[in-house]
Amino acid sequence: MKAKLTERLKKGEIIISDGALGTLLQAAGLEPGVCPELWNLDFPERIEAIARAYVEAGSQAVETNTFGANRFKLSHYGLQDKVVELNSKAVEITRRAIGPNRVVLGSVGPTGVLLMMGEVSEDELYEAFKEQCVALANAGADAICIETMTAIDEATIAVKAAKENTGLEVICTMTFDKTIQGDFRTMMGVSPEDMTIALKEAGADIIGTNCGNGMENMIPIVEAIHRTLPEMPILVHANAGKPHYHDGKNIFDETPEITASYVPELIKAGATCIGGCCGTTPDHIRKIKEKIIDNN
Predict the structure, then answer these.
(1) Which CATH number fits domain 5-295: 3.20.20.330, 3.40.50.1820, 3.30.505.10, 3.30.70.1350?
(2) Parallel, antiparallel, or unpaired for β 249-252 and 206-214?
(3) What are the residue boundaries of the structural domains of the chain, listed by start?
(4) pLDDT in tens, 113-155
(5) Diameter over CA atoms, the chain
(6) pTM to 2 decimals?
(7) Helix segments in the chain, DSSP class H
(8) Signed CA dihedral, 278, 91, 204, 83: sign only
(9) Contact (Cβ atoms closer than 8 angstroms) between residue 293 and residue 20
């Protein structure tokens, strides 16, 4: 039987996660305005090739192509009735690509609707997250990865929906920006410390941060999480630096070598699962793996 992520992390193992999916989907031909999750049905071989490329680079855990596969996001494409089908297919593709011994992380992103604005009720949010998480679990995902959250109410509802309706370990990460005061807050004003306490109370097994920052800025965020709750495993999916806009595209200039150079300091800060987000590629993961091996 495959060991749980938390068991491996608490024994001191550093898990290598995957990198960006959207970046590689665009490189594979995904056009603006097209639902990325629909590719699970239309171009499964392209999704599988991306997952396999990350495994070949060293990823031990790979996310599914389901970031926006909740009923609210899918409704923009008229696909709200395909939640189960799209999530199930994504797990099937990822498992086929990575094999039985690596970890399938069921990706769950924000819904795009706000509780504080009265656009949705807590019950409606809960049911949406429940629907997606149960579909991922039933299809064979090993863990749920709730990510890129900025509002603590939505994040905690998502965690509870996953914990109360699946038997899977639940990861939750939030996205932070550096303020003019030099500290870090989400777009909705949540600090790493406040996130850590709230997500732990909601039942998260692994807490962390993704997107919004390159690896260097992830270090103080991880330090804050670790200082608040030293025993909590921490996942980091960093961007390949800060993007700049060029010819209608966000360009990420941080090379694999630069990204990986921060890995030893990130591990020292408390990170236990490391991968990439926007702009990162299998080459970034390959260099991260080399640094982790050197660090051990």
Answers:
(1) 3.20.20.330
(2) unpaired
(3) 5-295
(4) 987 777 899 999 999 999 999 999 999 999 999 999 999 999 9
(5) 50
(6) 0.96
(7) 5-10, 22-27, 39-42, 44-57, 71-74, 83-98, 122-139, 152-165, 192-202, 215-228, 256-261, 263-269, 282-295
(8) positive
(9) no
